[in-house]
Amino acid sequence: MNTRDLVKIKKIENNFFVLDDDTYCSIISIEGIQFFLMDEESKAVIIDQFKSFLNSLDFPLQFLVMTRYAKLDSYINYLLSFKGKQKNTLLELQLEDYINFIESLAGESLVMKRMFFVIVSVQKEKLRSEEEILDTLFQRADLILRLLSSIGGNPTILEGDELLNFIYNCYNPNEFYVNKIESIKNLMKLIEGKT
Asked: What are 95-108's pLDDT values in tens digits?
């Protein structure tokens, strides 16, 4: 059984999607924090804030961690184009050294990217309209954004291509690199098993 069999998506909009069982979902991306580099007092504060965050909720959440190999080609190309525009010779030399470092790092070992997500959902009930469901979904997502911001995770709701990429990567866990998907039509073909 694969992810497509377990998570059947019926509809994708700009900032949410609907599963076959009429569950409406919004995805919040969270940046990781360098927890193990913090002193003990800072760690204790983060743990207490996270406990308070969880205890303040009156609805379920799902947490998801994805780990993929990161492709550095586009980043290196960006640095090369930035370097070419430099008028400051010292900055250009520093960029060249940095580019060489990144290329050697990428050549010696694979760089992993760990991504953190919170899945906020609302189950459709027979007496509620789609507007009421979406209001509830976005109120919950907004609450999660505010609470996680206070902890320092810099959360954002996935929209557009970010949401499509998230779904694509969930459906393709065996692909080793973070992939970009360009359009809803291509993703829907993938979801429906037409590709």
From this structure: 889 888 888 877 76
